[in-house]
């Protein structure tokens, strides 16, 4: 229900009472007490979403419920982060974050067209967090859209990806191909064909 609008009051436990011209949670009041938040967003203990009161152009003040989470990202675990970094940057991903900043990283975030992909060193994940990461297998897939699926597939194979399925028609409107990256993670190359 992220982004859903509700007219105030929200419910019987703690209705939001908005004053005329009221915008922003710092001005928001419940029926029993003033919100403690001093920022644009305020949090109620029984809710997992923030609220923001907004004045509708021709109607009552409404409250927009915002998701607790934002900026989802996939992180792939790898045995050789330097090798994985070379592979993904050769596909056009750009480095957005690295730690540590010098030497071999333990985590790198890459971005391509606003999509953020993380690479995490298997050893760091195991030693720092006590987890047992899976560094190979078909547990997730990185999907790359392209205008030329055959050229994209050839480029991935040229960079060392393992061919899984050559380009083929799917759903009558797509061409898709499958490879595994250098750590065995599935990658799909997709082209819309009309």
UniProtKB/TrEMBL annotation:
Region Disordered, annotated ranges: 1-21
Name of the featured protein: VOC family protein
Cross-referenced SUPFAM superfamilies: Glyoxalase/Bleomycin resistance protein/Dihydroxybiphenyl dioxygenase
PANTHER family in the cross-refs: BLR2520 PROTEIN
Species, as recorded: Microbacterium protaetiae
Domain VOC: 70-192
């Amino acid at each position: 229900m992220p982004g859903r609008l509700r007219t105030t009051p929200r419910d019987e436990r703690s209705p939001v009472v908005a004053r005329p011209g009221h915008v922003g949670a710092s001005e928001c009041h419940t029926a029993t007490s003033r919100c403690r938040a001093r920022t644009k967003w305020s949090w109620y203990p029984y809710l997992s979403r923030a609220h923001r009161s907004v004045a509708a152009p021709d109607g009552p003040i409404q409250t927009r419920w915002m998701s607790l989470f934002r900026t989802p990202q996939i992180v792939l675990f790898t045995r050789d982060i330097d090798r994985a970094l070379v592979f993904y940057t050769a596909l056009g991903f750009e480095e957005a974050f690295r730690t540590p900043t010098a030497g071999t990283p333990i985590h790198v975030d890459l971005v391509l067209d606003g999509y953020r992909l993380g690479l995490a060193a298997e050893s760091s994940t195991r030693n720092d967090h006590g987890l047992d990461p899976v560094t190979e297998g078909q547990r997730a897939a990185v999907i790359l859209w392209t205008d030329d699926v055959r050229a994209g597939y050839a480029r991935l194979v040229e960079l060392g990806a393992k061919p899984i399925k050559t380009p083929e028609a799917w759903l009558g409107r797509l061409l898709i191909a499958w490879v595994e990256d250098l750590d065995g993670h599935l990658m799909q190359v997709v082209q819309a064909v009309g």
